[in-house]
Design brief:
543 residues, mainly alpha, two-stranded antiparallel sheet, single chain, 27 helices, globular
Length: 543
């Protein structure tokens, strides 16, 4: 009996380290890197130099405007669509089309939106057809000094992410029953949401909304394409300083990256305080029934769909255009010449990198969700809710000290830190919903924990596992800063190439690279769906 007890203790310890050790290999080297990268910011003279920098105030202003406005708009769009259309046919249509919209990377979406709303863009050409413009209007619709076009792009793109999160939360039976109960008591749809549903959903949306705000604070690729130029947003300014060979500017970049973190913490504390005040001072519901508000004329979902499809359409037109001068609505002639002359090196680099990262992350995710400490999941989500620039600087400092920068190993490791949290977030829901009785039955029939997972649990979870692989691949494709820092300029992906071309390259070549950036995640999701259907067609009766 004593030997059996010792064997069980040994197996539990082995399971723990089998789950934790790969995560430590991904996150552990970041800790000394953060110290090396941010230690220069501990000098008071660095903060004085930052404060006296002439670009600093305007860069911070543009960052605050774009990040706060985009977060508020993104949450407002998602909340309004859920309030108006859940449950219903429109909400079901949104759920069906969300994977396609989410697969469009941020940089590609920014490039397409630039082609759409620029003074010489497609929308201006459509207006010019009716008002007889012969030259583009002198409007700052993109790269405006306040970052409004960047805020618009972020709001549209991140509203799709928040809708995806809402769809997962609203899919629970408890919410559906509460909706039915509220409507049966005579409350309108809007009252049911305001009095019953939203007070319960808002605490669960804190982390997703915080992730949206953190991304808006530290986004670089979209800010380079749509944000102000001189001075740029604070994230772009930090990126320029951190990559400058001057040690004083590097130290200034470290201090400014900490400012991004302080802004995040300050805004989060402000919102938390406002929520506490609202909870303690809101009036108790009086039970009054109000007539339903008719806002179904507001076709907000149509605008979202149109924007996503128009972005892809204008990219496709530019990739085929031979000559396309303002104010022509369509190209004068089309040709495949740009595609035939395209540089496919970034495509193949992105492909092998995304496959390597997602395939390495999958066993780490499975082992963590199966045997890892469940209470530490929040630590894995930190890269999603913290500004990216301090973390990327920490990664780069680690690679420099180990003399690994510019290598394939460094590039893969730099992507793992960002891909792993998204894959865990995608798979944790289906993993928790799995019927534990199946594993108990397998163990009762003599299977070891490892064989029970290998032959029972993971085959039954094949569809969410394949979806998780596709999400990890898409996240790797979209990475810009990790590729730029860890790759040392030796590895060019479709994302880095598209952002570089957006600074003044050929629009046709730029459109080709942006479309390749879109095609890779779409292909990943499509192959995952086909594989899931093929592997699961003989298990359709199982639940």
């Amino acid at each position: 009996m004593e030997n059996l007890r010792l064997r069980d203790v040994g197996w539990e310890s082995a399971k723990f380290w089998l789950a934790v050790l790969p995560v430590l290999l991904i996150f552990g080297p970041l800790l000394p890197g953060l110290y090396w990268a941010l230690a220069p910011a501990l000098d008071a003279s660095v903060w004085r130099a930052l404060w006296l920098d002439t670009q600093w105030p305007q860069a911070l202003r543009a960052t605050l405007i774009s990040s706060v406005l985009s977060t508020v708009l993104a949450f407002g769009i998602a909340a309004l669509l859920a309030t108006l259309h859940y449950p219903g046919a429109v909400w079901a249509a949104l759920q069906r089309r969300l994977p396609v919209l989410l697969s469009v990377p941020h940089a590609a979406f920014a490039i397409g939106l630039f082609f759409l709303i620029a003074p010489s863009g497609w929308l201006a050409r459509a207006v010019a057809y009716f008002v007889q413009w012969t030259s583009p209007p002198d409007w700052a619709t993109v790269q405006d000094p306040y970052g409004l076009s960047l805020a618009l792009a972020l709001a549209i793109k991140e509203s799709w992410f928040l809708l995806w999160v809402l769809a997962a939360v609203l899919g629970e039976q408890a919410v559906s029953r509460q909706m039915v109960m509220g409507r049966s008591l005579g409350y309108s749809r809007a009252q049911t949401w305001m009095l019953i549903v939203w007070p319960q959903l808002l605490p669960r949306l804190v982390w997703p909304v915080l992730a949206v705000f953190a991304y808006g604070l530290s986004v670089v690729d979209m800010a380079v394409i749509l944000g102000p130029g001189t001075p740029p947003t604070l994230a772009v300014l930090v990126w320029h300083w951190l990559t400058d060979p001057n040690p004083e500017l590097q130290a200034r970049g470290s201090a400014a990256s900490l400012v991004l973190l302080f802004v995040l913490l300050g805004c989060a504390a402000t919102v938390r305080g406002a929520w506490w005040l609202w909870q303690h001072r809101r009036p108790y519901p009086m039970g009054q029934r109000r007539a339903p508000t008719n806002l179904h004329w507001l076709k907000l979902h149509t605008v979202l769909f149109f924007t996503g499809y128009a972005v892809v359409a204008v990219l496709l037109l530019w990739s085929l255009a031979q000559t396309w001068f303002f104010p022509a609505l369509l190209p004068d002639s089309v040709s495949l010449q740009t595609w035939q002359q395209a540089d496919w090196t970034p495509f193949w680099t992105t492909l092998w990198l995304g496959l390597a990262v997602s395939m390495l992350c999958l066993p780490v995710v499975l082992l963590w969700l199966e045997w890892g400490p469940k209470g530490l999941n929040v630590l894995l989500y930190l890269p999603l809710v913290l500004p990216a620039l301090p973390l990327v600087a920490g990664q780069y400092a680690t690679l420099l000290h180990w003399q690994l920068d510019g290598t394939a190993l460094a590039l893969v490791w730099s992507h793992l830190l960002w891909v792993l949290p998204y894959m865990v977030l995608t798979l944790v829901g289906p993993y928790r919903a799995f019927d534990a009785r199946l594993m108990v039955t397998a163990r009762a029939l003599g299977q070891s924990p490892w064989r029970a997972c290998l032959w029972v649990k993971w085959p039954l979870l094949v569809r969410p596992i394949l979806a998780t692989l596709a999400v990890g691949f898409a996240v790797s494709v979209a990475q810009y800063l990790p590729t730029l820092f860890a790759g040392g300029g030796r590895f060019v992906t479709v994302t880095t190439e598209a952002v570089a071309l957006s600074a003044g390259g050929n629009r046709r070549v730029l459109a080709v690279q942006a479309l390749l950036q879109i095609a890779l995640p779409l292909a990943g999701f499509g192959l995952a769906a086909m594989a899931a259907y093929g592997l699961g067609r003989h298990r359709k009766g199982l639940r």
